[in-house]
């Protein structure tokens, strides 16, 4: 028997650092990935998909956002989708799950598990699902504890599904909400405990696994976790499950730290480095660059054109922290002419920069903008 384990879809999620066009693309892909999960289930011969919480980002999504994932799952009538609430979409009165039921928006091939207790998953394999159900965003009790005594038939394949923090794993356990015992699978005789909440794949032990979110949703210096789901194969109630990770995400998120630019070669290298993240599909890249350094007048203009304009237009999101500073000296003033108000203003700003003090940074930025604007005017009239 096979299942697909996924979690943390967070349909309707917003990202404050992207523009409206990029936000629309990111939100659309969080829906499109459902189709890729369904296709994977068919290819692998898995008749059940377990979604371990946080189907939605908010407890009060719009009507369209509420129904969209249901309609994506409806397309796969041969696959049974099993959903539980998470901390973002807990089963609260008048919440998302109540609305779905009230409006008859749930397809026949989607099962909402809103009460704790064993549920027959697959009669042919004597497989039973044991869901843990969050009825508020945070709880201090372990909602999987009931699984230890939950009755199932002799020889049943017991599969738990929960959303929360495994106690004893990682740091800050004392501050964890929605705690889950690290040995719950062993105590409850589970063949597998499908976990949600952690956004990257993480195998706690042979039978306790976080699938991660199917679309990456955060930056990391080495590539954030997530962007995949897990196909789980069971050879029996006692045999260890066999896990196979499958990439489902489209977007690639990267954070590049301590990028120091001092020359044209550095600018070219930075652009090439970002494009190489996904050379054939630059529109799938979200890059966050922490930039510093000193550039001459011409190099600074090149940086603005090549990185801030050209590269930004090629990728879905280019997030910049910091910027290279202008390395200008008296000789650079000659490009502004021998006199006139622009030359005079630049000379005064340069003197202020060289004098230092609290106003030097403001003068540096003003001088940088003056040179860049002058360059734009010169190119426009050439």
UniProtKB/TrEMBL annotation:
Keyword Isomerase: no
UniProt cross-references to CDD domains, sorted A to Z: MPP_Mre11_N (cd00840)
Calcineurin-like phosphoesterase domain segment(s): 1-127
Keywords per UniProt: Exonuclease, Hydrolase, Nuclease
Pfam families found in the cross-reference section: Metallophos
Statement: the UniProt record of this protein carries the keyword DNA-binding: no
Source domain of life: Bacteria
InterPro entries attached to this UniProt entry: Calcineurin-like_PHP, DNA_Repair-Maintenance_Comp, Metallo-depent_PP-like, Mre11_N, UCP033093_metalloPase
GO MF, one example: exonuclease activity
Protein name according to UniProt: DNA repair exonuclease
Biological classification of the source: Bacteria, Pseudomonadati, Pseudomonadota, Alphaproteobacteria, Acetobacterales
């Amino acid at each position: 028997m096979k299942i697909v384990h996924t979690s943390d879809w967070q349909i309707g999620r917003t990202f404050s650092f992207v523009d409206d066009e990029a936000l629309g693309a990111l939100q659309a892909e969080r829906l499109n990935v459902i189709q890729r999960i369904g296709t994977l289930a068919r290819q692998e011969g898995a008749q059940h998909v377990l979604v371990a919480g946080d189907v939605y980002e908010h407890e009060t999504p719009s009507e369209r956002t509420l129904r969209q994932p249901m309609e994506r799952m409806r397309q796969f009538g041969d696959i049974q989708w099993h959903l539980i609430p998470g901390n973002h979409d807990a089963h609260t009165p008048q919440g998302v799950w109540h609305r779905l039921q009230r409006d008859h928006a749930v397809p026949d091939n989607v099962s909402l598990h809103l009460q704790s207790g064993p549920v027959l998953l697959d009669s042919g394999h004597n497989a039973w699902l044991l869901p843990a159900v969050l009825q508020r965003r945070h709880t201090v009790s372990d909602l999987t504890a009931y699984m230890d005594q939950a009755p199932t038939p002799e020889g049943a394949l017991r599969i738990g599904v929960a959303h929360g923090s495994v106690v004893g794993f990682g740091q800050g356990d004392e501050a964890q909400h929605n705690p889950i015992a690290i040995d719950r699978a062993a105590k409850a005789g589970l063949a597998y405990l499908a976990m949600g909440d952690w956004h990257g794949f993480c195998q706690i032990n042979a039978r306790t696994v976080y699938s991660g979110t199917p679309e990456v949703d955060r930056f990391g210096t080495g590539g954030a976790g997530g962007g995949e789901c897990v196909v789980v194969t069971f050879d029996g109630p006692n045999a260890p499950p066999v896990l196979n990770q499958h990439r489902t995400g489209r977007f690639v998120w990267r954070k590049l730290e301590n990028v120091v630019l001092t020359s044209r070669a550095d600018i070219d290298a930075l652009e090439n480095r970002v494009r190489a993240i996904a050379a054939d599909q630059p529109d799938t890249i979200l890059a966050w660059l922490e930039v510093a350094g000193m550039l001459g007048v011409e190099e600074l203009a090149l940086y603005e054109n090549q990185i801030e304009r050209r590269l930004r237009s090629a990728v879905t999101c280019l997030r910049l922290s910091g910027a290279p500073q202008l390395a200008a000296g008296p000789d650079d003033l000659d490009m502004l002419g021998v006199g006139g108000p622009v030359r005079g203003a630049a000379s005064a700003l340069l003197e202020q920069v060289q004098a230092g003090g609290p106003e030097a940074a403001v003068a540096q930025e003003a001088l940088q903008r003056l040179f860049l604007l002058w360059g734009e005017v010169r190119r426009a009239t050439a």
